[in-house]
TrEMBL record:
Belongs to the LysR transcriptional regulatory family. PROSITE patterns: HTH_LYSR. InterPro entries: HTH-type_LysR_regulators, LysR_HTH_N, LysR_subst-bd, WH-like_DNA-bd_sf, WH_DNA-bd_sf. It comes from the Bacteria. Keywords: DNA-binding, Transcription, Transcription regulation. Residues 22-79 form the HTH lysR-type domain. This is LysR family transcriptional regulator.
Amino acid sequence: MEEDALPAPPPPSERLLTSIGIGLPELETFLAVVNEGSFSQAARRLNLSQPAVTARVQKLEQVLDIRLLNRTTRRIEPTSAGARLALEAGQALRGLQRLVAQMLVESGKARSRVTVAATPMVAALLLPSVLQRFHAQHPDMAVVLRDLRHFDALESVDRGECDLAVLALDEPLPRFRFEVLMDDEVVALAPAGHALATRGSITLAELASHPVMILEQYVGILAQIEQACTAQGLHFAPSGAAANLQTILGMVDAGAGLAVLPRVMAARSRSEPRHCLEIEGVMLRRRYGILTLKERTLSMAARNFGEFLRGEWILPTKLPHATG
């Protein structure tokens, strides 16, 4: 049997420069000599010895088998071949230098930037003052805040589009790490002047007898209330649901009924006096914290922001009643 034929070598134009002994040191040194017009000046510019500069240029001439420089007593001048090489190599190296410089700048910006996903209510109500304090203490770092719905926030962290997320999480998720920053009580919110506005708490029976609005993403909270009501022989069904906190608060202020909300949300953005009521017979909590992907190492910027959140996001687990 005939032996398998060896592949033909690539044409000279496709060979790697390093395979024939030409690398960036030789080209950079040659260009320095051409630009300076002197081996000694090029040596000082490159912080090399003059023999090292001479050796690199000689190596380049030997590999190419052509004279690149004319050496006179006054100045070094490129030959016609040397001028062609200096033109092409200079353009290539300048382009490479610009690209490397741009990438270093981008890398530096990336190291000092953290991208944070947050659900709309967290982004609007809980993070603004935190971000203001962070920027005051770390003016050289940038926080890019992305306002996303809960599932989209999880996806953005999973895909690496965001370094971390600040949101509420009811149940652990296998791929993510969740560090609780605040464990908040869920309460019933009544408008000023409501019959319950003088009370400190409300029973499940009373809650079930009133129109109650809830945020549509609070599936877990709704299930807990329904289960607790069923255990007492009560039927509970919300009279309305909305995706936006301001919509719920507007309906409360208009007298459309009660709302079930975390106390920290109920106490914010009050255009009208409102009153928080503890819900008897069921323990309802909403946990807010930092969510990261287990398999990903956080950047220094993300770690710094996380440490700041732990130390500076001081949110009590139980706020005072939101009375007018």
